[in-house]
Amino acid sequence: MIKRKSTNHVHFLFDWVRTMLLAQWGGIISFIAVAFITELFIGPSAMLFALLGGIVFAATVGQAQQNLLQDYTDADFEGWTLFSAMGGGLSALPVAISFGSFSFIFYLAGLEGIAHLFPSILPQVALSIFTLMSLLHWFKLREHVDHAWLWVLANVVGALMFIPFVQGSGIVSMLVMLTLAMLAQNIVTGVTMLFLFLEDSHPDDGLPDEDRYARAYVELYTRDERPYE
Fold first, then answer.
1. For a 10 Å CB count at each end of the chain, is N or C smaller?
2. Hey, where are the domains in the chain?
């Protein structure tokens, strides 16, 4: 059972959406940086790019989630970031398949390539990374809540939020639509995490469990032993 440090649900949801949005953009920037470094020093390798990029992106997002969860609860979420990175690494194969031969993206004039490629593969990449991350999170989350499977479902549904928001035709349009997609996803996962807290937690009111509830005593008598007749 999770003991919450705060009962301000709106504040938690706002912090979750804001923090995850910043973390995901940080992860995307790191993802692209890994791609350029891989291309520059090793050469085109979709599998290596997907492996390193997935680990870096997932670890960035996972660390932000772990920090936020530990700020709002007294539960031990140690290892959450490691599980996230492992999920990002496991997503390498489906991500590499989605990218195919991606080396042309990183030519000096490759920005238009990014703009045209991302809309077609973004839902598959998001679904691979977030589904595998949440599956590993389940092992940790089930220690604290009864319905941890909802976290996996929320991440699958959240990843599907990228489908209607990937119709941008240029760099600016793509960035706006990608931000909206991440915002929609983070609302889904934030509401789900808040629901899990509300279902399986109690506020930190300073009272021990034995003093939180009123005691009641019941005396049972047989028909012949009733003392008030």
1. C
2. 2-225
